Amino acid sequence: MLSVNAFSLSLDGKTFIKDLSFEIANGQVLSIMGPSGIGKSSLLHFLSGSMSPNLTITGEAFLNDHALHTKATQDRKVGLLQQMPLLFPHMSIMENLLFAIPADIKKSARIDMAQHALEKLGIPDKANALPKTLSGGQQARVALLRTLLSKPDYLLLDEPFSKLDPALRRDVRAFVLSEIQKANIPALLVTHDPEDAKAMEGDCLELKKEAI
Amino acid sequence: MAWGYQRPFFRKIEALLSPILAIPHAAIAIGLLFLLSPSGWLVRIFSPWLTGFDRPPNWITVQDPYGMSLILALVVKEMPYLLFVMLATMKSIKAQESLQVGQALGYSRFTLWRKVLIPQLYPIIRLPIFIVIAFSLTVVDLALVIGPNTPSTLAVTLLRWFNDPDLSMRLMASAGAVTLMLVIVVVLAGWELSHLLFSRLTRAERSNGKRFGLTDSVLRLGVVLGIFALLNAFVALALLPIWSLTRRWRFPGALPSQWTWDNIDRATPLLMELTSNTLTIALVATLMACVISLVMLETKRHSHSADHGKQHVFDWLIYVPILLPQIGFLFGLHVLLIYLNLNGDLCAIIALHLMYVLPYVYLTLKGPYLAYNEEYLWQANRLNNRPWRNYLSVKIAMLKPAIFTAFAIGFSVSIAQYLPTLIAGEGRYSTLTTEAVAQAASGDRKQVGSMAMLQAFFPIMVFWLAQFIPPRWTKWRLALKKVFSRRNTSCSV
């Protein structure tokens, strides 16, 4: 379970978000909506531990009652999925997947895991192909599986569907939700699109501009 | 440039520019020597049927007292560089759009260039022009090969004075080096001042609405001269291999009457030694330059994200070795080397080369490196937290094309260095460049031809490899991996 306590965000004395608190259970997706510039991305940065220094951020985050906000990014075991799939263009799809699997797992087991992921995507023949040969939807799915293979404790989704065309979006959304449920980890989705939030079947939080 | 831009065949010239840029100027100078000298190829093809000569005429064509041949060599060498820089800036000033708008208004192509594009272009290419001016004023190896002899240029004379057995000449040489500095400053100031005057005078004329003008034909003349210069460069280069394969080539013949591999064969031991010296120095210096550049750029990136927009101190410091006259600067360094007891050491040569290679490598890498999408690296670190390994296997691997190009440029800069090698090496280490320049006047064209050819060959080769390898690297790597994994499974079965 991921919980955030009294999160506040301000820049140059101007407050954007004040005392935001929420909880996300394992296997659930919480959607956060709101206009651009409201500080959605900063919330994700707060949770992933890569805040820019000129923002003033206060608040606490806990994962299963362990403090998260005091840890460095590399100790948090966070998975982040963005608009761009960010597959490494110079590695084959197999290598991209293997890259994420923790190194302490035995080599043959790692290859089995990656192969299994490829079969799940229905592209077992593409193991040695380069990412650019995949369609946008396939790339998005590979990126999600790659992130999940790194065994994150929680998942952050930063508008991962916005670059996909509408027909594809539905499939990818369903795929993402079912994979998150299988992995049984809490996930936070930031989006513009109400359809995204609806498809995730979880709670939806709407941030509004505060009149100051 | 004005004439050819946007025309289809110009693309091909663009592709040809980079090899000319890569070729050391000494090789071009030697090629021009072969082409233009009284017994050179230009006279040969017109003899004896047109000129009636059956022996070389008694003219002074190269090394003429007015330095015409030196000027020509400098034009041939520097024009591609300026062309290259201009092409790179064309996009940033939206030249294509301006031309379209202007032509729709009925302006002729050349008038547009003069009235619209050149005034925009100039501030951007001012620094490259300054570099060219400073280089032309201080160049030693080109002037030695093809420049006037008695008296020679100030830079060459300084070299002679510095090497004079009479030690008191060194004082004079030092004074001369300071003078040369002043000359550069004065010339640059004069250039800038005349530009200022010129743009003041033509400001009103720019908006007088005339669509055509007299200057159009002046620009047209420039086009002819430019093409002539480029052509010269290619023919000069083609002559290098011909001479190195010649056995007999009597004067009026347009081509050698007998061909042979003997020249190269005979010179092989010497060439091998020169080549290994050259390549060692170039490879070590360029590799070091690449690593240092990467470190510098990474620090720059960090400080860049901290305070936006400010010019980093590296950006200014890096130009110092390029803009300072080599001849004065290097003799100062030589004194330091003697003081440190490092003179004549291979390390000293590499260090001096590094000083000249580094700016070019840094400037080439800067754009792509700072434009790199850092998200890839962050994502890699989130997936798999091994920052050092990820830096190499993700960021560096993705920047491969840029790093290869920077390496090729650094390599060709190192190959071309004449004075740094001569001064730090004190004659104990010769490279293809120093040896070719030293022998250019010897008259043994066959041997000089082979040296200059090798000197031109390596940079072209490295440039070609730098273009050829990166796009195919991943394909090859995956193919290799496949072969190995197949072998492994067959072994285990």
TrEMBL record, chain A:
Presence of keyword Transport: yes
Keywords, ordered alphabetically: ATP-binding, Nucleotide-binding, Transport
Classification via Gene3D superfamilies: P-loop containing nucleotide triphosphate hydrolases (3.40.50.300)
Location of the ABC transporter domain: 2-212
SUPFAM superfamilies associated with the record: P-loop containing nucleoside triphosphate hydrolases (SSF52540)
Protein name from the UniProt record: ATPase
Species this protein is from: Marinomonas pontica
